[in-house]
Each structure stands twice: as C-alpha cells, then as structure tokens.
Write a structure and sequence with these properties.
Radius of gyration: 18 Å
Helix content: 25-40%
CATH class: Alpha Beta
Family: Belongs to the metallo-dependent hydrolases superfamily. Phosphotriesterase family.
Order of helices and strands: EEEEEHEHEEHHEHEHEHEHEHH
Strand content: 15-25%
Strand order of the largest sheet: 8-9-10-11-12-13
Largest sheet: 6 strands, parallel
Keywords: Hydrolase, Metal-binding
Number of strands: 13
Pfam families: PTE
Number of helices: 10
Protein name: Phosphotriesterase
CATH superfamily: Metal-dependent hydrolases
InterPro entries: Metal_Hydrolase, Phosphotriesterase
C-alpha cells in the first residue's frame, strides 16, 4: 500500500508536512454537508450558498489566530464534495484534510447492507489510494465513522471494522462519531480488536458525555478524546465542557484531548447568527486560559495533538 510519508498530511490541495502547520487546527469540522432528512434544509452547508461565508470565516481565523488546518469529517452519505473543499481551502489559504468512511446508521448508504466487511474495506482503501470519484483528491483521515447508543448496531459494527482495516492498510487514522458521547468504549474495543492501535483513534463528541471516568479510560488506553462540539450550547454548556477537559488534563491526559466546534448546519455560521468556527478561539480558549492554561498547553491541545493524531508520530514543539 502507498502509505503517507511520516509527518505528512494528505490535504485536499496536496500533501503538507506536519512541520509546516505552524498554527492551530480544528480537529473536527464540516465545511460542506447535507444531513437533511426532514426536508427543511437546516442541517446543510451547501457550497452553492454557503461557501463564501465558510471561506470568509476561515480566512479571518487564519489572519487573527493563525488557523492552519481543518480536519473535515464529512464522509460518504453526508453530502461530501471534495472539489468544493479544495476551492475553500485555496481561497482561505488553510489546509483542509478530507475524510472517507460512513456515518452512523440513519445515514448509511445502500452498499453497507449489500457488502461484507472485506468488501467495504476495499471501497475505503480504493478511495484512499486512488482518490474520491474522479477528483484525484485523496482522503487524509477516516471518519466520522459513527454509532449511536452504548453498543454499535450490526451495520455500524460492520462499518467500524471496515474502517479499522482500511486505516491499518493505508496508514491513516480514524475519528468516530459517538452519538451524544455514548458508546465510545465499545467503539474503541471494536477498532482495536481489528488491530488498529488506540493512538490512531479519536473517539468523538466526548464533551457531550458527563462522565470523566470514561474519558480517563479512553485516554489511558492511548486513544484521543474529542471535545469537538465546543459552543453547541443546546447540547451542552461550555462550562461543563471546560470542567470535563480540566478533569482529563488534571488526570495527566492533556496529550490525548482534541478540540473543535463541529459546525454542521448553516445556522451555526457567523453570518447567520451562529457561533461560527471561531468560537473555540474567541470564547472557549480564553476561558481555558483563565483557568490556568499557558501558551504551551494551548499549543498542545490545538496543534500538536491533532498533528500527532493524524500522523501517528510525535511533533516537535517548535
């Protein structure tokens, strides 16, 4: 298999070295998305309507905070459009990593029922090796591969197994969607049972689960613990997120936390009155600093950790 070189990220506009990522990253975002199951168009980021607003936000964050990287976890069945991602990345001058995989069961595509684990693995490996569709753009991460509930359903388990096998075969890392934070330990057991090392796994939406014991167990295993819905106050308050993050760090696991906002509908965009992609920088990180975080810790959480997750390698602090 043609695996990425050490310390190299596969971005939609070409490979970049980890060393070239000098500023913070957003570890779990959506720039283009279609999760509309109600027909109301709410759970959508349509590039024809919203690309300019998304680009403007990322450009502003690059200029103000040095934003250098976005991990874009829109995968198969979620309205993925990697050509639009490449256009946004070029215009915003921010590296964007695209994803492959399948979301949780309500968004599964027909091939999941029709194929076994090995066939699904082949679908993912083909995209990673040859590119998505006819674009030639290759994913740089698997995700957000999902489940809901405390234990994955049979189709979700099939997809998680295929994702783990594809990750092993191609040298990529894997990010999960754990609905409302539940089921992360079961996801990790399934993924590592397929031979994927825990340090190549990020368990998603753990800031929605008020259970520090689970977070500590995930981190102690070597997996990354994603606090990736920062600012989504209808799900959880940032005060609770901060408490959970501080607890994890006080337990000695600062090197296993990932941060992001998971912007997943146009109503979250700044120009539509939402918190925007910059909420983490403008609101949450200042609160973390007020709680005692210094520049080195902020850099660990927002740059070195996501780079280590994506590459599986350590990243120099300078």
């Amino acid at each position: 298999m043609n695996q990425p070189a050490p310390h190299t990220l596969r971005a939609v506009t070409g490979d970049v070295t980890a060393a070239s990522v000098r500023g913070p990253a957003l570890a779990h975002e959506h720039l283009v998305l279609d999760l509309d199951q109600r027909g109301d168009g709410a759970a959508v980021l349509d590039p024809r309507r919203h690309a300019a607003a998304v680009t403007a936000e990322l450009s502003a964050l690059r200029e103000e905070f040095g934003l250098s990287l976005v991990v874009e976890l829109t995968c198969r069945g979620m309205g993925r459009d990697v050509r639009a991602l490449a256009a946004i990345a070029r215009a915003a001058q921010v590296a964007v990593v695209a994803a492959t995989g399948w979301y949780y069961e309500p968004f599964h595509t027909p091939e999941i029922d029709a194929c076994d684990v090995e066939q699904l693995t082949e679908v993912l490996v083909r995209e990673i090796e040859e590119g998505i569709g006819t674009t030639g753009i290759r994913p740089g991460v698997l995700g957000e591969i999902g489940s809901h509930g405390d234990v994955p359903t049979a189709p979700e388990a099939k997809v998680l197994r295929a994702g783990a096998r594809a990750a092993r075969a191609t040298g990529l890392s894997l990010a999960t969607h754990a609905q409302l934070g539940r089921g992360g330990l079961a996801q990790l057991e399934l993924l590592t049972g397929e031979g994927l090392p825990a340090h190549r796994v990020s368990i998603g939406h753990q800031d929605l689960l008020d259970d520090p014991g689970v977070h500590r167990e995930l981190a102690a295993s070597g997996a990354y613990v994603a606090f990736d819905t920062v600012g989504k106050s209808s799900y959880q308050s940032d005060r609770t997120r901060l408490r959970l993050l501080l607890d994890l760090m006080e337990a000695g696991h600062a090197d296993r936390a990932l941060l992001s906002c998971d912007i997943s509908r146009h109503g979250y965009l700044l120009d539509e009155g939402g918190q925007g992609y910059g909420h983490m920088f403008r609101s949450f990180l200042p609160e973390l600093r007020a709680a005692g975080a210094d520049d080195d810790l902020i850099d660990l959480l927002t740059r070195r950790n996501p780079l280590r997750f994506l590459t599986g390698a350590s990243v120099e602090e300078n």
